[in-house]
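To: structure subgroup
Subject: Chain for Friday's discussion

All,

I'm putting the inputs and outputs inline so they're searchable in the archive.
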Amino acid sequence: MSQDDSSRVVWIMRKPRSLGNFSIETSYRTMQNAWPENLTRPHMHTASRFTTGILQRVAIWREVRALTFPLIHITGDIHFAAIGLHHASVILTIHDLGMLDEGGRIRRALKRLFWLTLPLRSCDHLIAVSHQTKEDIHRRSGYPLEKITVIPSVISPTFRRRDAQKNQPKPQILHIGLADNKNLTGHAEALSGLDVHLRIIGEPSPDQHSMLRSHGIDYSAASKLSEEEIQDEYAQSELLLFCSTLEGYGMPIIEAQTIGVPVITSNRSPMKETSGPGALLADPEDPESIRKAILEILECETTKATLIEKGFENAAAFSASRSAALHAELYDALRRKVQ
């Protein structure tokens, strides 16, 4: 793609909130900084409203419709912004579709209509962050597989190898996220009776606090952390426990591997593909399977060292420059198609 072609692309970003783990924004800003040197970086347009409520979302939709770029790329979450965009070529990145299964029947139907069915009618191409997400899109919508390109998300350059693990009174196990798919209950059942500290990133609900106490878990929680603070949470941990029941990609796996933290994740797609050989796999619905993996890392220094080294190797394959180049190639292919 020539410089003139790249400059005709705009990335549509949702409006970020003050603090939190905003993986979509981080991924695209990191790719923009790693953009091929011979090409002009895409423009970046951040929505002026938060994605809450009907009126705010309608305002975002109108805002995107008013843009005059020949190629509009919606980078995730605000899928509805693609509806009716026929004046430009449209790309939509889909990170996962698990939210379509949440809520009652009417709520699920509305989300499917405005986050999948209607947006996809206006899209010339889709980007999925994993093969699992690609297959899920096709299964739910029938969208042609040949029009879905898999390009992994990338992590912030803030994440770096830790110098050394800090001494802790007892091994710290890191858990990230508190949605149902993050499997906090399964993790608590697996940890019950072990002399470890569970560090939770997120704000547990009253029911989750009660559940943790019922299992006798020694735990603490932190939320709304900066990237530097999250880096420090990883660096203080013995391992990342990430046996989710559902993910679109599993970015914490790559973050942990980059820092040098052993990973335990699910033996399901896409987690097992994202982690490569740099993780122990466990059945997320079998606490005993998770517990066995935890003990293997805590009790065997050889296993721990091997996972760290293989994790470094695996994380290196998910580079920002590679994902940026794949985006640029896709834009060029779409340009050639419409000529």
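Points worth raising on Friday:
The CA atoms of residues 3 and 39 lie 5 Å apart.
The chain has two domains: 3-154+319-338, 172-316.

D.
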